[in-house]
Design a protein that fits this description.
GMP Synthetase, Chain A, domain 3; single chain; 14 strands; Ger(X)C family spore germination protein; 10-stranded mixed beta sheet; signal; 2 domains; about 375 residues; 4-stranded mixed beta sheet; GerAC_N; alpha/beta; Spore_GerAC-like_C
Length: about 375
């Protein structure tokens, strides 16, 4: 029995043994963000933001510094290898948070790079993917006071509850799954440097439409908000309406919850895309006094909000129907419900049917606004 315990202890000591010095951690170089671009010769230009750890001899403590690496290669794999040739130790991508494709790289086709991002063992499938409109050198050299590391800042930004309600941000595994479903059209958020900001800052503004991995069109921020609202991936968080009794004034409703049920039916060479949308909203602001205890006023506001939502969604749908871009995943829904029916461009014969139900919550608890 004692011999068995000794053997078990020796095995545990062997398996659980770790670093007994700082040699390994002192050499570590961790990537936090990757920016992928292409040059005029279609070669890959890779920018990496890294955290380089080292042990300070002055105060005998561990510290680190932010470094930027850049390299070029015929493929992404070669660009990574060339980048490692200038590093004191091999760059580790296990902690990489975001992968950013420039507009030029997206138009060239991100599927040129996706195999390496999926195949490499260090690059995790949970990384976020974004597009970027602008100069990648300017982006990688930004000094953001909220967070020293660009990759960590963008990682927190896309996980921000407010941002996630406006844009659907892909992770690598989601893109890999979706590219084989339906018509291979994706809508991906675009990162931009804020020009009007007093300090260096970035935001997600609009989205890029990708067909078979190539960006074919840009979607403006307002359209991107409507798209995410229609797809149930996010909601237009605010609804601004004209004041029900005072001309020239506005009221603002905040969406607390949104539930969307989507379905398709195919009959006589016609497809109907039906969306049942239920909003729960509360009053956010009124530019002039309003009697919230008057049921007629509340009914008028609800009706106006429902009609405005129908109008915006219908106009948006018709806009992309004319372009022949099935960003609404009609083909995917159709193939699931009618697996034996094959229609090349289903959006061309699709009509949108909207059922919008808006409910104002807590109106009886809101005090009437008074203005002298």
């Amino acid at each position: 029995m004692k011999l068995k315990m000794i053997l078990c202890s020796l095995i545990c000591m062997t398996l659980l043994s770790g670093c007994f010095n700082y040699q390994d951690i002192d050499r570590a170089i961790f990537s936090t963000a990757m920016i992928i671009d292409v040059n005029e010769d279609k070669n890959v230009v890779l920018y990496s933001e890294v955290f380089h750890t080292y042990r300070s001899k002055e105060n005998n403590s561990e510290t680190g510094t932010r470094l930027i690496f850049s390299s070029t290669g015929k493929t992404l794999f070669e660009a990574v290898r060339n980048q490692n040739k200038t590093a004191s130790n091999k760059i580790n991508f296990e902690q990489n948070k975001v992968i950013i494709f420039t507009k030029r790289a997206a138009e060239y086709g991100i599927d040129h790079f996706i195999d390496f991002l999926n195949r490499d063992q260090e690059l995790l499938l949970r990384q976020y993917i974004l597009l970027f409109e602008g100069d990648p050198k300017e982006l990688i050299q930004l000094t953001i006071k909220q967070e020293e590391y660009l990759g960590l800042y963008i990682y927190d930004l896309v996980r921000n509850e407010i941002v996630s309600k406006f844009y659907d941000i892909f992770q690598v595994y989601e893109y890999l799954n979706n590219r084989y479903i339906g018509n291979s059209i994706e809508v991906m958020g675009i990162l931009k440097i804020k020009e009007e900001a007093l300090e260096d800052d970035v935001s997600i503004e609009g989205a890029g439409i990708l067909k078979d991995g190539k960006m074919i069109e840009k979607m403006e921020p307002e359209d991107a908000n409507i798209y995410n609202g229609m797809m149930g991936q996010g909601t237009i968080r605010l609804i601004i309406l004209p004041h029900p009794t005072i001309q020239g004034k506005n009221i603002t409703l905040e969406i607390l919850d949104c539930k969307i049920q989507s379905s398709v039916t195919y009959d006589n060479d016609k497809i109907t895309l039906k969306k049942d949308i239920k909003f729960k909203v509360s009053f956010g602001e009124s530019e002039y006094s309003i009697d919230l205890d008057d049921p007629k006023i509340l009914k008028k506001i609800e009706k106006e909000a429902e009609e405005q939502t129908k109008k915006r969604y219908t106009e948006f749908f018709e806009k992309y129907k004319e372009k022949g871009l099935d960003i609404f995943r009609i083909q995917e829904m159709l193939s699931r419900k009618y697996p034996h029916i094959e229609i090349k461009d289903p959006i061309e014969i699709t009509e949108l049917k909207l059922v919008v139900d808006l409910d104002i919550e807590g109106s009886s608890d809101v005090q009437e606004l008074k203005r002298e």
